[in-house]
Amino acid sequence: MKAAVLFESNKPMPIVELDQSEPKTGEVRVNISAAGVCASDHHVMTGDNPTPMPIVLGHEGAGVVDTVGPGVTMVKKGDRCVLSFVPSCGYCRSCRTGIPNICDTNRETGTRQYDGTCRLYTSDGTEVHQFAKLGVFAESIVIPQQACYPMPDDVPMEVAALIGCSVTTGVGGVINKA
Asked: Which residues sit opposite 31 in a β-bridge?
């Protein structure tokens, strides 16, 4: 699987071949169809937002579910999905008290998946992080099912990719500050 990997701040992101784990319980593999570039990606690239490296950036994306791990109930193979960079585990205190957008598990595990491990590796076995658990600057990603939201067939992938951050940020700003 190929991805654009940031190995060091203020350096180019080469396209490299990575090894990718199979989805674990509650996870899915999504083939990426469209990705957006956000200022958050730029802040990581320039070192303004210190992040573990190497890392695959990109948290605005859309794609098609290719593989589902055990216990997946929210999506199925072939579903077209918009991806969320704030997946909620559903079990932590924040999720149970109605504020899943600040999921404790998501914040604690950061660029790793919910079990604290990575799903991407370089050829020498080095772990590669996924920005916001996504890392959509890749051909495919393994992510929590909670990050996948099925969408109708008539929604263009390049439009859906923007919903995950750009659109929701703009709408949230208008609703909460206007």
From this structure: 64, 140
Question: Residue 153: is it exposed, middle or buried by C-beta count within 10 angstroms (0-12/13-18/19+)?
Answer: exposed
Chain centroid to CA 69: how far? Answer: 16
Q: Which residues pair with 29 in a beta bridge?
A: 67, 142
Could you tell me the residue ranges of all domains in the chain?
2-170
Q: Is the pLDDT of residue 170 over 60?
A: no
Report, in angstroms and rounded to the nearest whole number, the Rg of the chain calculated over CA atoms: 15
Query: Active-site residues: which are they?
Result: 38, 40, 43, 59, 165
Kindly report, residue by residue over 6-25, the tens digit of the pLDDT: 999 999 999 999 999 999 99
Nearest Cα neighbor of 130 from 11, 29, 34, 12 is 29
The third-level CATH classification (topology) of the domain covering 2-170 is: Quinone Oxidoreductase; Chain A, domain 1 (3.90.180)
* pTM confidence score: 0.90
